[in-house]
Amino acid sequence: MIAVSFDKCNNQEKKDFECPCTYAGCPRHGRCCDCVHYHRKKDQLPACYFTAEQEKTYNRSIDFFIECRDK
Ligand code: SF4
Fold first, then answer.
1. Which one of 27, 35, 36, 41 is separated from 10 by 20 to 30 angstroms, measured CA to CA?
2. So which domain of life are we looking at (predicted)?
3. Is the CB of 32 under 6 A from ligand 1?
4. Over the stretch 35-58, which tens digit does the pLDDT of each residue have?
5. How many other β-carbons are positioned within 10 Å of the β-carbon of residue 65?
């Protein structure tokens, strides 16, 4: 098994700038590996999978993602 550390990310400053998530106060903002890990455990996708309008709903479910893709 590969050990993954979420403590250090050489790209965090850059990713924090690029992260489209508008959910205020999330400690995973700009920490993509931590963000994916968190949402994957909940059968969800991170904010960057959604358009700006979809992202604002804070619905990160895979069902919502598929529903949006089908439109
Ligand atoms: S997508 Fe989720 S985990 Fe990622 S920054 Fe936004 S609220 Fe945090």
1. 41
2. Bacteria
3. no
4. 999 999 999 999 999 999 999 999
5. 16
| Ligand 1 atom nearest residue 29's Cα | 5
What ligand 1 atom has the least distance to the C-alpha of 34? 3
**Ligand 1 binding pocket includes 31 (Cβ within 6 Å):** no
Residue 23 inside a domain? The answer is: no
- Residue 27 near residue 37, CB atoms below 8 Å: no
pTM over 0.85: no
Cα distance between residue 2 and residue 9, in whole Å: 16
Q: Is 26 in the pocket of ligand 1 (CB under 6 A)?
A: yes
Report whether residue 47 contacts ligand 1, using a CB cutoff of 6 Å. yes
Token couple for 11:
């790209």
